[in-house]
Predict the structure of Glycosyl hydrolase.
Amino acid sequence: MSPDPGRAFTVEPWVVREPNLDLAALGQAESVFALSNGHIGLRGNLDEGEPHDTPGTYLNSFYEKRPLPYAEGGYGYPESGQTIINVTNGKLIRLLVEDEPLDLRYGRVHRHERVLDLQAGTLTREVEWESPAGRVVRLRTERLVSLTQRAIAAIRYEVEVLAGPIDPGSALLVVQSELVANEALPARDDDDPRVEAAMTDPLVAEQHRHGETSATLVHQTRASGLRVAAAMDHEVHGPDGLQISSEATPDIARTTIISRLEPGRRLTVVKYLAYGWSSRRSLSAVHDQVRAALAAARYTGWSGLVDEQRAYLDDFWLTADIEIDGDAELQQAVRVAIFHVLQAGARAERRAIGAKGLTGPGYDGHTFWDTETFCLQLLSHVAPEAAADALRWRQSILPLAKERAEQLGLKGAAFPWRTIRGHECSGYWPAGTAAFHINADIADAVRRHVAATGDIEFEKEVGLELLVETARLWRSLGHHDSAGEFRIDGVTGPDEYTAIVDNNVYTNLMAQLNLRVAADTAARHSRAAAKLGVDAEEMASWRDAATSMRIPYDESLGVHPQSEGFTDHQVWDFENTKPDMYPLLLNVPYFDLYRKQVSKQADLVLAMQLRPDAFTPDQVERNFAYYEAITVRDSSLSACTQAVMAARCGHLDLAFDYLAESALVDLNDLAGNSDHGVHIASMAGTWIAVVQGFGGMQCDSTGLRFAPRLPPALSRISFGLRWQGRQLRIEVTPDGTQYQLVSGPPMRLTHHGEALALAEDPVLRVNPDPQRVDPVEQPFGRAPRARHPGG
């Protein structure tokens, strides 16, 4: 199947296929084709390294420090930033054919195809290339980053000589397999503050060793003092007379394989890679770590690694797969989204999940509130151990968060707005320090995870401490006014176009829930809470603050202002804002954004999604219509939330359009910056839009509730999830919804308010007919692309 015009990839259910190499879209393909396991990330660069957009080999939480300059200093400003760096590149395998290097910019490319297989977890590439001298070779490579052996990546590289326009006799081939540190990186556009800071030669060589078919390089970062080891080993199969040798210098290690290959014969090289890093372990310990991992990989063998990868993903997809009938492009995109979110967190193991995962250097590799509010909603239901580890990472950085709170004159923990290892790295405090809602987002992820898994030990050992310290933050940040209401002033909510406001509704509602859940959890685990210094008086103060929380409401308009006074502001002049002015943050001054009614992304609407109990149905409908008209979606986080709430409000076609925008942001490069890495939170939001929007799922400690609504464009949606040790599958069609308990003990749930008992046999219920709703409007020129029939 050929790709659509302007689309780099074909539409297929379980693979992403690039049938031709498009050098103009190389960066996007490198991100989409990136392989990761949450510890190692390999961008989808070509095996020979060039041409490239951005070379990328990343290790989770491996960073270098960089200064954060300020035009004017101020107390509490972060003094240094953290930037993910491109570590030793082990993907490189160069080929020379009779002294001509395989470089797709020279000679003739007869065929070039790459395929990301979502079920196998591999990236394959097939090339037929004719050198400038007329020699033709066929190359087939397969690459994986192991989901079962955390430190391992591997490449199978096979080359064959073909008959060409000249004498089809044997050809002399030289394969150079390399480890390269401190690669030269392309310059970036410094005018965009979202783009990562460039780092030049961040690694200092400490050790280089080689054997006959292997090599190891050990380096340390100049400023952050982190030590990294990269090792490679090879298995080679080919004709007699092969010559193999290895060498190593401080920044380059190379294994060279020389063979004279007859037409029809093949030379096969399997390259095993191992990566490890530490801030504490000695040079010899890190060296030995990667050599041991390499030995285990060689023991498993290439076919064993492939089989393990397939078995891991087969088990994952049994629950995680979403089936969509009626839109083949969307079916593919939803699976790609789920796959990339899994890759971002599968083996992160108590380290952060970045906004780009390990697919590119965008946002400096930082993690934000995206992880808890979007990614963990998916992972808690399809890969709960990965979600638990992400929250354990938050617990591990609590000491730094408590230090930050103390620096700010607050109690409890003030989690960093953007970080890699726990230090605040945001140099812009209105969108960083003031965005305290990240604390409630973490607390809410704890609440949801415990509800989804029923893991009481996790709640006691990890969740309780996170809930207590975030509740303490809110109690000290807010205050009771003269009327007795609890106010949280001078903060920034999810919408970064409205900063330093009083009583942001999202922030206050999420803080309210944080306070309540913290008090309830501390009461359940009273002994553990007492060890954290929690007593009855403190719990009572949390409940009192939650009960009296200020939630602004505009009686004249009948809507909730995003923050106090927001609906009194002048509405942004959307009709006179040209399309090339978006995103607004790059083209207009922040002060103008801050004083107008214009939302970068869903804020109040996100509050309605996460706190449906706080709004009446009429309020939800009025609020949704009001904020649709002023939300410009300059953030990729917005469309999925608008999809959920559009579905709940009965705007099913609009919800479908938003779902498509969220799902296709990287496959179709809708934001124009997929070359920096994929949008992990938007991909997680794709799952949220399907499951919570069209599946109508809501859950808390009382159980699961569903209110399915199928958009007219689709004939069927099926999705699975895990719930407290059970595996469920839900299928929504025009005739109704079927609930199936795949495994686990009997349970109860609700369907559009009707209680159901679920045991061995599936249960089918009719969906109510959709109600007619009045259309809603978006800002001029900012409506999502109409995807529904007749749109």
Remarks:
- DSSP finds 17 helices and 32 strands in the chain.
